[in-house]
Specification:
Blueprint: H1 4-11, H2 23-32, E1 39-40, E2 44-53, E3 56-63, E4 70-75, H3 87-98, E5 107-112, E6 125-130, E7 134-135, H4 136-141, H5 149-168, E8 171-172, E9 181-183, E10 189-191, E11 198-199, H6 223-226, H7 235-250, H8 260-271, H9 301-309, H10 312-321, H11 332-336, H12 351-354, H13 367-370, H14 380-385
Parallel strand pairs: 1-5
Antiparallel strand pairs: 2-3, 3-4, 4-6, 5-6, 7-9, 8-11, 9-10
Family: Belongs to the protein kinase superfamily. CMGC Ser/Thr protein kinase family. CDC2/CDKX subfamily.
Domain Protein kinase: 44-341
Keywords: ATP-binding, Kinase, Nucleotide-binding, Nucleus, Serine/threonine-protein kinase, Transcription, Transcription regulation, Transferase
């Protein structure tokens, strides 16, 4: 058993006489202090940056002692250093330590840089993960990457397996999008970026949850969050799964709004008007009467997707995932039992197809997506969804694309 003095020193690592030290003594103490159970980041050598966003930066790196070991290092963004280690990062670490599944990214360790005069005696912390060669957004951005129907089934099956697991453990991801779906060279899918994730609970005795609705990247955000719902659950992730599934065929996000009202308008054009008839209780949501919602829109999920998807079982599953009313939206368990996964061609291994592509593909490294440029300006898909009154080229609208998470 660890002695009480050791436990005390870890909880309160600064000695009682620290504040009596002069500046030089304090600097020396901080520089030599060894964070318990936290290796130095210098054990890894950064190779290249593979991601950047509001969360910080992600680097591909290798272990200096074992160069064959490749990892991903996610820098912890210190928003306000006076408040200490960010609570969002602590939550992410706690959740990732809980979740251990083939289809969830694996957190190896937390490491930090040594505090020195050069960095003003402030350590930088990194979350270290198993490295995955691609993210789904990067793969879909490459016209040379072609998924067969069986391979698409395997991608979505693994995605739903990951969601079923985290929801069974009472965790919401809350940032489902193609860039947060990693795929290894062996074709194993990993749900990643749990920076917005949180535990959820089923309320009893009429109580309601009060979660923030400022989550999920706009293009993948479900209608209940756009209308101000704060008592939500797993269906928010299933909406994102539906958007990602459709993207496997369209090769770009299917609803690319610039603002929340605009995103709601695009949703209405695809899924029909948002009314109490189609969604009982929607009128109780905070923003329902504050936003002008489209009226008279018919549901067109299957009609709009059929030219791209073609497979009737896939269209049916998408129709069950992209449902306005979260209470009627298909859950991960029901989705995994859908005929889409149990009809020919069956889900098949991705590794053979991925072996044809030796370079890693990430959204960050794909210039067209990062700069918000539509890769295929002649695709009729975009014309379906954007306001033609502001079109500037052959009936298409080019909105400024916003990839930031809210």
């Amino acid at each position: 058993m660890m002695p009480n003095s050791s436990i005390s020193s870890m909880i309160n690592p600064v000695p009682g006489g620290f504040y009596k030290m002069n500046t030089k003594e304090k600097e020396k103490y901080i520089e030599e202090f060894d964070f318990p159970f936290c290796d130095e980041a210098s054990k890894y050598e950064k190779i290249t940056k593979i991601g950047q966003g509001t969360f910080g930066e992600v680097f591909k790196a290798k272990d200096r002692k074992n160069p064959a070991k490749i990892v991903a290092m996610k820098k912890v963004l210190m928003d306000n250093e006076k408040e200490g280690f960010p609570i969002t990062a602590l939550r992410e670490i706690k959740i990732l330590q809980l979740l251990k599944h083939e289809n969830v990214v694996n957190l190896i360790e937390i490491c930090r840089t040594r505090a020195t005069l050069d960095n003003k005696y402030r350590s930088t912390f990194y979350l270290v993960f198993d490295f995955c060669e691609h993210d789904l957004a990067g793969l879909l951005s490459n016209v040379n990457v072609k998924f067969s129907l069986g391979e698409i089934k395997r991608v979505i099956q693994q995605l739903l397996n990951g969601l079923y697991y985290i929801h069974s453990n009472k965790i919401l991801h809350r940032d489902m999008k193609a860039a947060n779906v990693l795929i290894t060279k062996n074709g194993i899918l990993k749900l990643a970026d749990f920076g917005l994730a949180r535990a959820f609970s089923q309320c009893k005795n009429g109580q309601v949850n009060r979660y923030t609705n400022r989550v999920v990247t706009l293009w993948y955000r479900p209608p209940e969050l756009l209308l101000g719902d704060r008592n939500y659950g797993p269906p928010v992730d299933l909406w994102g799964a539906g958007c990602i599934m459709a993207e496997m065929w369209t090769r770009s996000p299917i609803m690319q709004g610039n603002t929340e009202p605009q995103q709601l308008a695009l949703i209405s054009q695809l899924c029909g008007s948002i009314t109490p008839e189609t969604w009982p209780g929607v009128e109780s949501l905070e923003l329902y009467n504050k936003i002008e919602l489209a009226r008279g829109q018919k549901r067109k999920v299957k009609d709009r997707l059929k030219p791209y998807v073609k497979n009737p079982y896939a269209c049916d599953l998408l129709d069950k995932l992209l449902v306005l009313d979260p209470q009627k939206r298909c859950d991960a368990d029901a989705a995994l039992n859908h005929d889409f996964f149990w009809s020919e061609p069956m889900p098949c291994d991705l590794s053979k197809m991925l072996a044809q592509h030796t370079q890693s593909m990430f959204e960050f490294t794909m210039q067209s997506r990062r700069q918000g440029v539509l890769r295929q300006v002649n695709t009729p898909w975009i014309a379906y969804f954007f306001n033609r009154k502001t079109a500037v080229h052959e009936g298409l609208t080019f909105y400024r694309l916003d990839l930031r998470s809210d």
